[in-house]
Amino acid sequence: MVGGGGGGTTYYVSPTGLDTNNGTSPATPWQTIGHVNAQVYTAGTSILFQGGQTFSGALALGTANYSGVTPPTTASPLILGSYGTGNATISSGSSSGLVATNIGNITVQSLNFNGAGGTLVHGVQFVCSLSGSTKLAGVTLSGLLVANYGF
Question: 49-72, pLDDT tens digit by residue?
C-alpha cells in the first residue's frame, strides 16, 4: 500500500516472518512489533506490516530508534504502513497502539489500531518532551482506523 520514503530502507513485518530475518523484503520479513521497536533506523525508513494480518503489541518509537544516525526529515520521513492487500491491524490490548516520542517527520498510513476497549490509553499518540517550545513538525496521518481506545 505504501512505498519507501526518501531513500531509506523499507522493512517488512509478517506473522509468518522471523525476527532473525533481515526484514528487507516480503520474502524475508520480521515477525514481531517488539523487534520493530528495538531497531535503529535511518532517515527515510519505511516499516510496512502485511495487509490483512493482525500484530499483537504496541508500537513504541522514539529517539533511541535514531541513536547516532540522522532522524527523519521532511524529505525523508519515517513511514509506518501496510503492504499487500488491505490494512494491517496493530492489536495493542490495554496499551496505546502507537506512541511516537520526540520524533517529527513521521507518516502513519493504511493501518488499523485496535485496543481492548474502555482503557485510559490513546490509539495513536505523539509525545514531545523536548525543552522549551520545541514542536515536532511533519506528522501525517492517513487512512487509519482507530477503535476501542478511550481517554
Answer: 999 999 999 999 998 999 888 889
